[in-house]
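Reagents: none. Just compute today. MarR family winged helix-turn-helix transcriptional regulator.
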Amino acid sequence: MPTKTASRVRPTYFPQLAAERLDIALCRASAAVARAGDAHAAEEGLGVGQHLVLQMLQAVGPCSQQTLSEELRIDRSVMVSVCDDLERAGHVRRERNPHDRRSYAVTLTDSGRRRLAEAQASIPAFLDDTFQSLTAGERAQLTTLLGKLLHVGD
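Predicted 3D structure written out:
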């Protein structure tokens, strides 16, 4: 009697594991979305972290790298290189913080505003593609549930 090789066996354990362990399912889903986001960012030529920094600066105005790091949950050492790259590209500038001369405020430039607008234009299609297996209602529900898990709005 012939045996099935490992390459022909259809995986059946992971769906069971995901149903039993929400933490595992959420981690795998998060990793898949992160990979999709990184691939999209590579196509756009603007890293995910860079995009988030430009988006926050547009929304809240100039702020310190520390504030950007804390709010966007990007490690401080990574934030330095993100801001360095954005500054080299002319999308942000660092200026002495007028309220605290020991720190610098990161400010969005006109070039950064234009670059952000270009990047933002492709986000709806990216999200539709990434979350195509969910209905609009399910996406809204997922957003609400993730907000609860992340304590958004508390």
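Residues 21 and 33 are 19 Å apart (CA to CA).
Action item: order primers for follow-up constructs.
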